[in-house]
Amino acid sequence: MAFNFCMSPNAKSRREVLELFVAAKPSDAFARYGLALECANTGDDEAAVGHFRALLEANAEYVAGYFQFGQLLGRLGRLDEARRLLSDGITVAQRIGDLHARDEMQAALSSLQ
Q1: Alpha-carbon dihedral 106, 108, 109, 110, rounded to 10 degrees
Q2: CB–CB of 54/33 below 8 Å?
Q3: Measured between alpha carbons, how far is 113 from 45 in angstroms, rounded to an integer?
Q4: pLDDT at 5 over 80
Q5: pLDDT at 88
Q6: DSSP conformation letters of 73-107
Q7: Cα–Cα distance between 84 and 76 in angstroms, integer?
Q8: Is residue 17 scored above 80 in pLDDT?
Q9: What is the pLDDT of residues 52-86, one digit of tens each?
Q10: Which overall architecture, per CATH, does domain 14-112 show?
Q11: pLDDT at residue 113 in the model
Q12: Sequence ranges of the domains in the chain
């Protein structure tokens, strides 16, 4: 059986679907994280920054958000913000025992200096 994966004219983009998820459940960390990543990956850096901020304000222990947001800020040349964010993320990761995330953020922080 073959499947046709072409989008119909009424099909929503990945971003539109994620925006609907976030609108329905604004505190859902996974949906907000996915939307932030999708915005970053499609070049809408301003929206990505806003969604990462909202993610971390509502879910301060979502360590993947610190890592990805810090990398985005670094790519945007906002190095002081990136350093601060990654440092905060390292602290959170250490506190919750996510040593892998801590080490990744430490490596990302070191690459900014």
Answers
A1: 90
A2: no
A3: 22
A4: no
A5: 98
A6: HHHTT-HHHHHHHHHHHHHHHHHHT-HHHHHHHHH
A7: 15
A8: yes
A9: 999 999 999 999 999 999 999 999 999 999 999 99
A10: Alpha Horseshoe (1.25)
A11: 66
A12: 14-112
According to the model, what pLDDT value does residue 11 have? 76
**Is 6's pLDDT higher than 90?**
no
H-assigned helices in 3-98:
14-24, 29-41, 45-58, 63-75, 79-96
Gap between the Cα atoms of 75 and 72, Å rounded: 5
Q: How far does Cα 92 stand from its chain's mean position?
A: 16
Is this structure's pTM higher than 0.85?
A: yes
Q: Which helix (H) or strand (E) holds 9?
A: none
The secondary structure of residue 63, as a DSSP letter, is H
State whether residue 24 is helix, strand or coil: helix
- Give whole-number Cα distances, 4 to 1, 7, 13, in Å: 10, 9, 16
Task: List the structure tokens of 73.
Answer: 């800020």
C-alpha pair distances (Å), 33 with each of 27, 39, 54, 80 = 11, 10, 9, 22
